[in-house]
Please model this.
Amino acid sequence: MNLRIPGPTPVPAEVAQAGAAEMINHRGPQFAAMLGRITAGAQQVFQTKNSVLTLTASGTGAMEAAVVNHVAPGEQVLVITIGVFGQRFVDIVRAYGAEPVELAFDFGSAADPAQVDDALRANPGIRTVLVTHNETSTGTTNVYLPQISEVVHRHDALMIVDAISSLSSIPVQTDAWDLDVVLSGSQKGWMTAPGLAFVSVSDRAWARQETNPMPRFYFDLRRAKDALARGETPWTPAVSLVFQLDKAIEMMLAEGLDAIYERHRRLARMTRDGIRALGLELLASEGLESDTVTAVKIPDGVDGSQFTKVAREQFDTVFAGGQGPLRGKIFRFGHLGYVHEPDIRAGLVAVEKTLVSLGYAVANRA
Amino acid sequence: MNLRIPGPTPVPAEVAQAGAAEMINHRGPQFAAMLGRITAGAQQVFQTKNSVLTLTASGTGAMEAAVVNHVAPGEQVLVITIGVFGQRFVDIVRAYGAEPVELAFDFGSAADPAQVDDALRANPGIRTVLVTHNETSTGTTNVYLPQISEVVHRHDALMIVDAISSLSSIPVQTDAWDLDVVLSGSQKGWMTAPGLAFVSVSDRAWARQETNPMPRFYFDLRRAKDALARGETPWTPAVSLVFQLDKAIEMMLAEGLDAIYERHRRLARMTRDGIRALGLELLASEGLESDTVTAVKIPDGVDGSQFTKVAREQFDTVFAGGQGPLRGKIFRFGHLGYVHEPDIRAGLVAVEKTLVSLGYAVANRA
Model:
């Protein structure tokens, strides 16, 4: 099966096998050494000297950690949204009794730093800004992240970034862009099975945590920091996934970050070219297309609700459908993590065959 | 290495290999079928018709879920403690702004139903009782759980049970004992790597959740229930651990619950007999010794802080030390999950050799 969704992504055989190693004590020296290695490796991938904490949770758990550790009940929070995962931040902020001020941009477009500046001027009490770097739901990258970070810090606010589906595949310069809190997840570019999430925390964010009255326990990052200093996690970690991640990070560092970024750029371009050659349109505006996932509009006359089913059942390829308001209107083609040219070629063939099977007359053969 | 800690426990090769299977879409039919199987299997192991939800988290995440879904801020909660993990419930309740009323029993003893009754009479506002079934920190089983449940329901309170290190190894009759919320974790008797936790929820507990104002999101069990009805989890689950669990439950049901319980009883007895034959004392009072983990007092004249290190480095066996106030005073010998006679025999030999190496004159050779 060609798994062409934007996560979970294919796990290389070496990584999968590493996860099958003999179980160990999570409070012993072997685990401590491994936790030290993956933390140092993750810091390289995050391009940061900040703490990077590894949680046993989905990416959504890391999003919750970002909110509960830095946002106070009742506090106004600016949430910049460009799709479904930005909305998830809105939902979490609201669930925890804080007040989201949503600055929404159209699906397929990027956030405009000038409008972020306006929103922060209009709401001078805001101390925290939440933003998605790469919208998995729309295949769009928020390309002005460094400029937004500059604006946010000019207003003395914390910059919290969901980089779950970008970091490790697309450059995210945590320190150079002065990002206070950055999130990622094992099942994306990290080539590891789902179940681990990462959070990087700047000194500014640690200071905020000290006085933040929001209740928290499992996702209390101070506990994770204290435990990490002893080579441990506060709660029993997903040891077999840490085995996998240890191997995956070794592979990533051997390939090199620049080579990984270049591979993702090349395969994303190949995907987009192939999609356009079929006469299809992308959801993302030009120049904002994500290098990890491509969202494709279902062409007129094709039953979008059948697309993923037909591709899976007839053409052995798993695409993702649209989420929320995009259900049935797009499909999404993942090209992140352990992915190479043959996967993209096979994916494009499956797109074409699926559309033809659903009655689409392919317009412009490449 | 003989992994003789009370979790993570050894993962059988078939289970470990199942976890290395090709990654799949967590929102597709193959995952839905698997989630259906593990849920039905877990219900058998829980001996319940209640919902059983599988979370991507440590056991502590399940403990947090039990608290945030059923306890309101400011509410008084009775927490029955017999060791360190009971204390964790106290900490979670306090972290979430509720008021723990602790009914503490000495380490090594079980909770007395009459004293639970007294505590509930003295605090008539209490609607929720938290209790540990099997104290991993002291090797003690709270054997009067059915009687406590009867008392709790007479006072119209919810009965929430941490059965993380008992259920699947020691009988826990969720329905017959009328337990409202019961917790377990994959890395214990389930023979699966850590990272998945289970929560069963009675109708009474679901009703409580509907009106409970406590903020929650990642661990919101209503979201897990709604997703399960669609064959999904609300957030990306630890798919490779679900692969493992699917295989492990198949093995458990093939062995049969009664046979599993009997094996644990037999191996626990063998462990205790062997420990006593070395002239050592158990922490648990007679008749309350856990069938999943044995806590052994470090004999006089032996440096308890060195025990686990020497056992690991010189005798290839990993025991757990004491936690909290028990640090350096006990060691713990795990005998749950995928464990058989040779593991126990080898563990006992390692205990003896370690003690001798630390200067103990073994008194009564069996």
Summary: Chain A touches chain B through 57 residues (CB under 8 Å). The first helix of chain A runs from residue 13 to 18.
